[in-house]
Design brief:
Elements lengths: L6 H13 L2 H11 L1 H6 L7 E4 L3 E5 L9 E5 L11 H21 L4 E5 L14 E7 L16 H15 L8 H16 L13 H7 L4
Antiparallel strand pairs: 1-2, 2-3, 3-5, 4-5
The structure holds zinc ion.
Length: 213
């Protein structure tokens, strides 16, 4: 644990941080980061998986037994800093870990959660994905409110997002919209038929195999 430091020392430290190059700052952050210490093996943790880029450990205060923290080995504070191939790898490993919960500890489902930024509830200074095994009626609630929005507002925010991605938002024709609405209404009424193109893994199949139904 960090020792108490005086106001004077704190000012000195702040001054030092201001003078640091981006590389020095990153080194400094790494030294302060408990998750970098875990990745380096300097702090004990129950490691479930490790490769060149990521380490998966058990959360010591789990939301459910088996709750995994999937960490990048490199110190990244938030997702935008992570190169594409690394973030792709993170989510491939997340998929495997999720599968291991379904197969290995009788999870009936999993939640994979990334808090990206303080406003989103991020508390750790090191990027991580939480992989949480779930069972029906396990008492955890991740409920999203269903807000009401005008169609024009939905379209406006959609256009801004598409523009930020660099793709032009397609002007939707009213007729197209009607078709879409019909499809959605139809889908709500009837359970979706399994298509050839569907992934081989189906939640209903999994729950049947696991004896949940
Ligand atoms: Zn770190």
């Amino acid at each position: 644990m960090a020792e108490q430091i005086s106001q004077e020392q704190l000012r000195e430290l702040q001054e030092k941080i201001k003078q640091m190059s981006p590389e020095e700052l990153k080194e400094f952050q790494k030294k302060q980061c408990i998750f970098c210490q875990i990745v380096a093996g300097k702090i004990q943790a129950k490691k479930i998986y490790e490769d060149g880029n990521v380490a998966a450990i058990l959360d010591i205060n789990p939301a459910n037994p088996g709750h995994i923290l999937l960490l990048t080995k490199e110190h990244y504070s938030i997702m935008p800093q992570i190169p594409d191939d690394e973030i792709a790898h993170v989510f491939m490993v997340a998929k495997s870990l999720s599968n291991s919960m379904l197969k290995g500890i009788d999870a009936q489902g999993t939640n994979i959660i990334v808090a990206n930024g303080v406003a989103a509830g991020q508390r750790a200074q090191h990027f991580m994905a939480h992989i949480i095994p779930r069972k029906e009626n396990d008492g955890l609630r991740f409920e999203l409110p269903q807000k009401t929005m005008e169609e024009s507002e939905i379209n406006a925010v959609g256009n801004r997002l598409a523009a930020a991605l660099g793709g032009a938002a397609e002007e939707e024709k009213p007729a197209q919209r009607q078709e879409q609405k019909k499809e959605v209404a139809q889908a709500k009424k009837e359970p979706r038929q399994k298509k050839e193109s569907d992934s081989n893994i189906n939640l209903d199949d999994i729950s049947r195999i696991l004896g949940a139904k």
